[in-house]
Design goal:
With 675 residues, the chain is of the alpha+beta class. The chain has twelve helices and 37 strands. The strands form eleven sheets. It has an eight-stranded antiparallel beta sheet with strand order 7-8-9-10-17-14-13-12, with no helix packed on it. The longest helix has 21 residues. The radius of gyration is 27 Å and the shape is elongated.
């Protein structure tokens, strides 16, 4: 976002009078736009700022804790003037730094002599440091105007935030109280020399010698103080890192790992009961399908987060007798202009046995595997009933449309579920392999649209048998087959020739925007480049396509999507949003943000991990004591090194050379390199 600074001779805009109640804009038609906001995330704490660094008491800006805004206004004035903003950027997932200067009549020349740095942390602290470059001592008045409405984030998103509450003086700061008894307190160190509660104002007179600096530290807390989940000592994510010839590898991996850590939320089961929130700021509710896809893509970082998320979701499983027995709970989600809303609970139910089966291969401890296996068996039992024992799976409900991605999820669940049951000595593995074979034949007979170009899969099959012919990014899930023991890839729903057709479709301009994979082909009815399921680039599907194409040997298409996604990540400061506009890339320009997209988002953060580990092609079998490498032969990003990963619960480091040769540099004792 470009910042427009006032000219040196102009008076900066004032808050007049300080602390006065402002006229609020009309409530927004939807959630406030957040695409230009800097979000510092260390859940359940959050700080949302504009790039200039001032919190103005409007929109979504402010400090939050557990979904409630503790502070909405924090407006700094120095020597009676607003600082001139220069730069605002994230320095970590949970911290932002803002730089500004102040022009005063006492400046010796045209250059400003007072600079300001604000370091803002999601945990509710801010350090404001004034630096003087003057050649003589300066006495600088500093004042900060505070305010809050103590509103819930959901109310703010719906445009129903209340007016600012009156403040009261409290120790070395201010306090606000809500009618429900909740309160927020701001304290300052050093203590202010003057305070005006009616205006929410704290004042200091700062003495600055030549070349000196002075820091004011603010702390915002509530009646229910919490510690960010990722700083509790039970962090399930390792200190992994990535390096490479391509200079984007290191910051993308670091930002993805930092965002995942910042999105961790604690469940009711104690410090180890963790799961990732779907995304900030709008989707911090109970985990569902997005959480499972995120932890699955993050399995190279270890199995602790996957196990905790599976435990959390297992508690949502239907246990009452009936058709829903074994299904996980989840809300409906918009599916675009051509299909009714889909059920995230169905998606999560099909993902559960897949994540558990692959977590076992990465080294999930036997005790946790035994604890979670019954829930996976109930998921498979639901699948058998819901599909009438071998038919294509309608969703939501048996009479709903049969979506292409749902068939891919069901087939993967059956095959990986069979591998899981067999490895654990449970009955039914052969039956599930037969079930998957029947589904594969049924899909091939009824879901493929033949044409002169070789054909393509339908986006869905309706209850009357009609096929929706629209090319869709959801077809990427057909290439995501999953891992089996001994480093094997599971067979997919498609044969080799049809897999090649899907690869061509995903690599065509109809779906590949140059920045990633759009959800609906650009020339199809209902296409909307900002539509969540109607044409926007969804990072999750792009990452799935990259991994699936690479595993199937279609590196040309995989590399095209990979480079586009890395370019988009660079344009977004290496913090990928969950989606952005599906507009075709041109010689000049950048990916266009979506105003309501969560950033950070769990699936987008995990996607950064997934696409970089896809370069190496790690296929572990921790119970069998082996790990195989299937790196991309073309080494599209040159040499890449990943360190601090986890296989069999121990550090795992691997390197791929510029010639595409993979080498294990660190691994658990006894882990052998497989073929």
């Amino acid at each position: 976002m470009a910042l427009t600074a006032p000219s040196p001779n102009s008076e900066p805009p004032r808050i007049s009078p300080v602390g006065a109640v402002r006229r609020r804009a009309a409530p927004p038609a939807g959630p406030p736009a957040v695409h230009h906001a800097l979000l510092c995330v260390a859940l359940p704490c959050l700080a949302v700022s504009a790039e200039h660094g001032q919190l103005n008491g409007e929109g979504i800006e402010g400090f939050y804790q557990s979904g409630r805004r503790l502070l909405s206004r924090c407006w700094l004035r120095i020597a009676g003037r607003d600082p001139v903003p220069l730069q605002g950027r994230l320095v970590a997932a949970d911290r932002a730094r803002f730089r500004a200067v102040v022009r005063t009549p006492e400046d010796a020349g045209p250059d400003p002599e007072i600079s300001v740095e604000r370091l803002r942390d999601a945990d509710g602290t801010e350090r404001i440091t004034l630096h003087s470059s003057a050649r003589r001592p300066r006495r600088i008045p500093v004042e900060i105007s505070f305010g809050t409405d103590l509103a819930e984030l959901a109310a703010i998103g719906a445009g129903r935030a209340g007016p600012e509450l009156p403040a009261g003086v409290h120790a070395a700061g201010l306090r606000w109280s809500a009618p429900d008894g909740r309160y927020a307190v701001v304290t300052a160190s050093p203590a202010p020399q003057d305070s005006l509660a009616s205006a929410g104002l704290l004042r200091w007179e700062v003495e600055l010698g030549p070349g000196a600096a002075h820091t004011i530290e603010l702390r915002i807390r509530s009646d229910r103080p919490v510690r960010p989940t990722g700083r509790t000592g039970s962090d399930p994510l390792p200190r992994a890192a990535a390096e490479g010839d391509d200079l984007r590898v290191r910051p993308l991996f670091a930002a993805s790992l930092g965002d995942l850590r910042g999105l961790l939320l604690r469940g009711p089961g104690g410090p180890a009961d963790l799961h990732p929130a779907a995304g900030v700021p709008w989707r911090c509710g109970p985990p569902a399908a997005e959480a499972l896809w995120a932890v699955r893509m993050a399995l190279p970082l270890g199995t602790r987060l996957a196990a905790a998320t599976l435990r959390t979701l297992a508690r949502t499983q239907f246990r009452e007798k009936g058709r829903d027995f074994g299904r996980l709970r989840g809300p409906l989600r918009d599916a675009g202009p051509h299909l009714p809303p889909s059920c995230t609970g169905v998606e999560a139910t099909l993902a559960f046995p897949v994540v558990l089966a692959e977590a076992r291969l990465w080294g999930l401890p036997e005790k946790e595997l035994a604890e979670l296996l019954p829930a996976a068996e109930r998921c498979l039992q639901w699948l058998r009933v819901a599909s009438d024992d071998g038919d294509l799976l309608g969703e939501p409900g048996p009479t709903g449309p049969q979506r292409v991605e749902t068939q891919a999820h069901a087939h993967r669940a059956a095959l990986l579920g069979a591998d899981l049951l067999e490895a654990c000595g449970r009955p039914g593995a052969d039956g599930w392999r037969e079930w998957a074979g029947a589904l594969r034949r049924r899909f091939g007979e009824t879901f493929w649209i033949d044409d002169r170009a070789g054909g393509r899969p339908a986006a869905a099959r309706l209850s009357d048998g009609r096929l929706l012919p629209y090319p869709s990014g959801n077809a990427a899930h057909l290439l995501d087959t999953g891992l089996l023991g001994e480093g094997r890839a599971a067979p997919g729903l498609l044969d080799g020739a049809r897999t090649e057709q899907v690869a061509r479709l995903l690599g065509s301009p109809a779906l590949d925007t140059g920045w990633g994979l759009r959800g609906l082909a650009a020339k199809e009815p209902g296409h909307n480049p900002f539509g969540h399921r109607a044409g926007a680039v969804r990072v999750h599907e792009t990452a799935v396509a990259i991994g699936g194409l690479a595993a199937a040997g279609h590196e040309k298409e995989a590399v095209s999507l990979l480079r586009g996604l890395l370019d988009a990540a660079e344009a977004f400061g290496h913090r990928l949003p969950e989606m952005y506009a599906g507009e075709q890339r041109t010689a000049v320009g950048a990916p266009v943000p979506h105003p309501a997209a969560c950033r950070p988002a769990a699936v987008a953060a995990a996607a950064g991990i997934h696409v970089l580990t896809a370069l190496v092609g790690i296929r572990p079998d921790a119970p069998g004591g082996t790990v195989a490498l299937h790196p991309m032969r073309t080494a599209p990003l040159g040499a890449v090194q990943l360190s601090g990963l986890r296989v069999a619960g121990e550090p795992f480091s691997v390197r791929v050379s510029r010639l595409g040769l993979g080498m294990v540099e660190e691994a658990a004792d006894g882990l052998q390199l497989g073929v």
